[in-house]
Amino acid sequence: MGERLLYSSFGVIAIAFMARATVAWRSGEPVISSLMPQSLHGFMGPVGLGLLYALARMGRKARDARMDGEKFSHHRIKHGRAADLIVVLVFIHAFLGFLYLFMVLE
Questions:
Q1: What phi and psi values does residue 90 have, to the nearest 5 degrees?
Q2: Dist CA 27 CA 24 (whole Å)
Q3: What 3-state DSSP class applies to 35?
């Protein structure tokens, strides 16, 4: 499940970058400079993708250790704690996106 979440998050972020590039292109602005994050919400998207990738790697390590018959409780605990942190960051990111929506709609 973590792999699907990672790939879908990458897809959402790629769509966001393509949308920003399209808006800049249609407005006659430089496309490259429009791809730089202009808000905390925009900055946290790629950072969150990096954290999600690290979490997926932890999950793979726990799964591989379990499949090999090794002790995996340490990996499982680390993965669970990291997942808890990322869930909190996702809620903050969603709230910032909600606030950013008001800036865009003005």
A1: -65, -40
A2: 5
A3: coil
Which residues contact residue 46 at a Cβ distance below 8 angstroms, ignoring those fewer than 6 apart?
A: 13, 37
The pLDDT value recorded for residue 85 is: 92
Distances (CA, A) of 51 to 8, 54, 61: 14, 5, 15
- pTM of structure: 0.80
Q: What is the pLDDT of residue 49?
A: 92
Start-to-end CA distance of the chain, whole Å, equals: 38
Please list, residue by residue across 38-53, b when 16 or more beta carbons sit within 10 angstroms of its beta carbon and e when fewer do: eeebbebbeebbebbe
* Low-confidence residues in the chain, pLDDT < 50: none
Contact between 36 and 21 (Cβ < 8 Å): no
Q: Where are the domains of the chain?
A: 2-105
Task: Give me the helices (H) in 1-106, please.
Answer: 2-27, 31-34, 40-67, 73-105
pLDDT number for residue 55: 92
